[in-house]
Specification:
22 strands; FAD/NAD(P)-binding domain; Enolase-like, domain 1; alpha/beta; five-stranded antiparallel beta sheet; 23% strand
Length: 494
């Protein structure tokens, strides 16, 4: 067997977070090996954020065209999926080829290896017959895969996950969607607006169950207006498939049929494939446990969905910045705190490390590395209307013992909502800590719910006092002016 190849860092999994970490560390002068068995860039550019939002954009254009009647004349709308499928292939996925992404990484100085990697003891990674010894550390960014429920018969059918839904070139006549979370609702609305008969089945008592009840109610109403049939509090018990399509047998004797079945019931990390036992870690967990500097263990970091801190690209990128700063800080301290004119390290360049640390504002001490803080984690469900949320829901705040105040303003009653007319559904809901006098959570639902959320995210993240928020000037007439009304409507402490 060949001797281990000595490098500074090995990054296992080049999804959004892993690619960012690997590229930035390579640019800093470290020798970085990036390992990916699928496509560099991960789920987001090929089967997630980018192509799905292209689909949503197309579906929303159809809805807006139908709103011409009563506002600006009349319009005849004939949906056509062909240009949507073509755009996804030409602009988003490059037909599921990651050549450009690989070249982007190697152009920064990284070394790319295609294959499945496993930990092989402290500081060591095995890819096939090759073994790498990582002098500065290992970063795990292996992401997640669809979590398919153990429903009788399901595994033996050609069900869809989000990947097949994104890749589809010819739409089915009907679609069953198992799962009423963000992905399920986004795709359900898209397909419905292109003429597919869509049925959503959710085991919990409401769709978008992680968000405020008001958001769930409004999202369900919007999808029903698009012709989507929604069943909540219904569990799938058995699935069968034949030449006519799928039949989903659910609790209460319900039997639902459709040409295709889309399963979007969550995702999970597959830790059993990583060799975690070789470094004393438990592979039986759902996700990798990390601290506020993304440490999994000594010399091992994790980034992205595999950490279970929110399956969002923006979380992966946020975590990547922390990992980069901490790895570079670790590397410089290992090299004796070399300055830009210092001697090169055993493998990488201490000069590059010091330069990169200077650019990120690190002083070289452990305390200078940013710490992860998810108090103001923003999230957006890109249905129409959009559902944006940040921080705690009202229920979560009460469960944590917060002295809660709640303020709500309906968007249609605002001037901008009244002007907008058709498609103006939405609201702003604020959750405040009366004792601290700050917002701990907020929800913004509306035609631009995700954009209105930005100011609310700043308020939660920076703990801006309610007195200052009330004293702000809110532009008129805008959707975000509803924030001012919600502040006025804050209830007395509970």
């Amino acid at each position: 067997m060949a001797d281990p190849e000595l490098v500074d860092v090995v990054v296992i999994g080049l999804g959004v977070g892993g690619e960012e970490v690997a590229g930035r560390l390579a640019e800093a002068g470290l020798t970085v090996v990036g390992v990916e068995r699928d496509l560099v860039g991960g789920e987001c550019p090929y089967w997630g954020c980018i192509p799905s939002k292209m689909m949503i954009r197309a579906a929303n254009v159809i809805a807006e065209a139908r709103r011409v009647d009563g506002l600006a004349g009349s319009a005849e709308v004939r949906p056509d999926w062909a240009p949507v499928a073509r755009r996804i292939r030409e602009e988003a996925t490059d037909t599921w080829d990651d050549t450009a992404a690989v070249e982007r990484f190697t152009g920064k100085g990284g070394r790319f290896v295609r294959g499945s990697a496993r930990l092989d003891g402290p500081g060591r990674v095995r890819v096939g017959e090759r073994v790498f010894e990582a002098r500065q550390g290992i970063v795990l960014g292996t992401g997640t895969r669809p979590s398919v429920p153990p429903v009788e018969g399901l595994a033996d059918t050609p069900y869809w996950t989000n990947r097949q839904a994104i890749e589809v070139e010819e739409l089915p006549a009907s679609l069953l969607v198992l799962g009423g979370g963000a992905i399920g609702l986004e795709l359900a609305q898209v397909f419905a607006r292109f003429g597919v008969r869509v049925t959503v089945v959710e085991a919990l008592d409401r769709v978008l169950a992680v968000e405020e009840p008001e958001a769930s109610e409004l999202a369900a109403a919007a999808l029903r207006a698009d012709g989507v049939e929604i069943h909540t509090g219904v569990r799938a018990e058995r699935v069968s498939h034949d030449a006519d399509g799928f039949t989903l047998h659910a609790t209460g004797g319900t039997a639902l049929t459709a040409e295709r079945l889309l399963v979007v019931t969550g995702r999970r990390a597959h830790l059993d494939e990583l060799g975690l036992d070789t470094v004393g870690l438990d592979a039986g967990r759902r996700y990798l446990a990390v601290d506020d500097r993304m440490h999994v263990a000594e010399g091992i970091w994790a980034v992205g969905d595999v950490t279970g801190e929110g399956a969002f690209t923006h979380v992966a990128m946020y975590q990547a910045g922390i990992v980069v700063a901490d790895v570079l800080d670790h590397a410089r301290r290992a090299d004796g705190g070399a300055d830009p004119s210092g001697t090169a390290s055993v493998v990488g360049g201490a000069a590059g490390v010091a330069s990169a640390l200077g650019a990120t504002g690190s002083s070289g001490s452990a305390g200078s590395v940013p710490r992860a803080d998810y108090r103001a984690l923003p999230r957006v469900t890109f249905t129409d209307p959009e559902v944006g949320a940040v921080g705690l829901t009202e229920r979560q705040a009460r469960e944590r013992g917060v002295n809660v105040q709640v303020g709500l303003a309906e968007l249609p009653s605002s001037t901008r909502g009244w002007i907008h007319k058709s498609g103006n559904e939405g609201f702003v809901k604020l959750v405040a800590d009366a004792d601290q006098g700050v917002l701990v959570g907020a929800t913004s639902v509306g035609p631009a719910g995700g954009e209105v959320l930005s100011g609310l995210a700043v308020a939660v993240h920076a703990a801006v006092p309610l007195t200052q928020l009330r004293h702000m000037i809110y532009a008129y007439p805008t959707f975000h002016r509803a924030v001012q009304e919600a502040l006025r409507n804050l209830t007395s402490p509970s």
